[in-house]
Write a structure and sequence with these properties.
The protein is about 50% helix and about 25% strand. The protein has about 475 residues and is α+β, with helices and mostly antiparallel strands. The strands form 3 sheets. Strands 1-2-3-4-5-6-7-8-9-10-11 form an 11-stranded antiparallel sheet, with no helix packed on it. Strands 12-13-14 form a 3-stranded antiparallel sheet, covered by helices on one side. Strands 15-16 form a two-stranded parallel ribbon.
Length: about 475
């Protein structure tokens, strides 16, 4: 354990901290417990207040001459209540405690030897009827008696040695005969003096007997705790054997690594590695939980299905991208036409677009409403519908009609050719047939180049096939 003290300017202890390390479970699992006590003193240095490690507070009440007359206690779970523990205290003329009154009718009375003023008896009662304890052991003089006993025992042992030396091998019976033959000396002491000496010897004898009883009780306690001397010796031998075994085990342990200076550094490094292992294990647990969540939320489609869908989506995206780029080129060319031919109107373009759209849809749609060069609305049964509401196939036919009309509008009587990229790919068979027929009619008058990766579309168009 480790004990630390804090002092005030007067040199009085105001706090004490005790740190206890439990080594029973091994050096690698040190359990430290810290206990702190705090104190408060009066101007004259009298202790007035104390707080123990468990949060229990006690304060002293002082009377005249700064003598303690009571004590109160406050528990951690009742911080607003001071409970009186000692209600009052009485003192004799010598300033010694004569009586202590506790709460609930308990009280203690203390008696002292008139000559030595040492405590001779302690009696405790409850309500003046029930005697709780009656102790007559001289607590204050116990250490002195033991010291006197040890001193007297040494003196007696010395006297025995002196007697043995004086006898010089002579038997006691022979010496008694010699003594009996000696004339008895005349006693000059008075009976009162002899009585006083006798009383003093009786008093010393009583003290020695008290010490002897205490020593005998101590010996009995040791015998109950350790057994006989033989048992204690056997235990000592067992401990020595166990110590030798432990030392042997220690000697067989592997030596420390080269980069480790001592055992403490090894333990510190081991603790660091254990902490890192715990952290890694916690991270692994979190990752396993995350993997379980991902497994629970994974899609129903397999990886192969998702790959196929991704391939199809990419193909469709590339087709739409090519179509968008074509629209952009058409828009650019159209803007150029508009800049060069701003004197023209869009009426011929609208008429051509309606003509081609009528052919491509088998006569289903006839009239369009344009926003500049782009068809915006389609007339159906006397009502106008936004072009965005058309089906995908019909919308592709409208786009093809617009491109063909723009080609006619741009080329007019000029020589030139039309290039289309897979115009039939998103059409159903019926629309493909109508679109192929229209393209064949245009190809009879102008050169039409159609790029496709579908042999069936090439056969349907009936043109010259060039494989790349």
């Amino acid at each position: 354990y480790e004990m630390l003290f804090a002092y005030n300017d007067s040199g009085e202890i105001v706090a004490r901290q005790v740190t206890i390390v439990d080594l029973n479970s091994g050096l690698l699992s040190k359990d430290k417990k810290v206990f702190v006590e705090s104190y408060l003193y009066g101007p004259d240095g009298t202790l007035l207040y104390k707080r123990d490690p468990f949060g229990v507070e006690s304060r002293l009440r002082l009377g005249q001459n700064q003598l303690m007359v009571g004590a109160d206690l406050r528990l951690p779970w009742a911080p607003d209540v001071w409970e009186p523990i000692i209600t009052s205290m009485q003192y004799n003329p010598k300033g010694q405690i004569q009586g202590i009154d506790y709460r609930k009718g308990l009280f203690t009375r203390i008696e002292y030897e008139p000559e030595t003023l040492l405590m001779s008896r302690i009696k405790s009662y409850r309500d003046s009827r029930l005697e709780l304890q009656d102790l007559s052991l001289d607590f204050d003089g116990l250490d002195k008696l033991k010291a006197d006993f040890d001193k007297a025992n040494l003196q007696i042992q010395g006297k025995h040695n002196e007697i043995k030396k004086l006898l010089n091998g002579q038997k006691l019976a022979d010496l008694e005969k010699e003594v009996s033959a000696i004339e008895k000396p005349h006693i000059t002491e008075s009976p009162e003096m002899l009585q006083a000496q006798f009383n003093e010897m009786q008093k010393q004898l009583a003290e020695y007997q008290t010490i002897e009883r205490y020593a005998s009780k101590q010996l009995q306690d040791w015998e109950m705790k350790f057994g006989s001397k033989e048992n204690l010796l056997d235990k000592l031998l067992e401990n020595k054997a166990e110590l030798s075994n432990v030392e042997n085990q220690i000697s067989q342990l592997k030596s420390l690594p080269e980069n480790i200076a001592d055992s403490q550094e090894f333990l510190d490094e081991f603790n660091r590695k254990m902490a890192a292992l715990d952290k890694t294990q916690n991270q692994m647990i979190l990752l396993r939980e995350k993997r379980a969540d991902l497994n629970a939320s994974q899609p129903e489609d397999s990886t192969e299905d998702l790959t196929d869908k991704l391939t199809q989506a990419k193909s469709k995206f590339e087709h739409v991208l090519r179509k968008g780029k074509a629209y952009k080129r058409i828009q650019t060319e159209l803007n150029t036409i508009l800049e060069e031919l701003d004197k023209y109107t869009f009426t011929p373009l609208k008429s051509k677009t309606e003509e081609y759209f009528h052919k491509l849809t088998g006569g289903k749609y006839q009239t369009l409403r344009m926003e500049e060069t782009v068809p915006a609305d389609i007339e159906l049964n006397g009502a106008w519908l936004p072009a965005s509401l058309l089906s995908t196939g019909t919308l592709d036919l409208l786009a093809l009609a617009t491109r063909l009309a723009m080609a006619d509008f741009y080329l007019e009587d000029k020589s030139g050719f039309i290039v289309l990229d897979d115009p039939l790919v998103n059409l159903d068979p019926q629309r493909q047939e109508m679109a192929a027929k229209c393209l064949r009619e245009i190809a009879a008058e102008k050169q039409v180049i159609i790029l496709t990766c579908h042999p069936s579309h090439a056969a349907m168009l009936q043109g010259d096939l060039i494989e790349l």
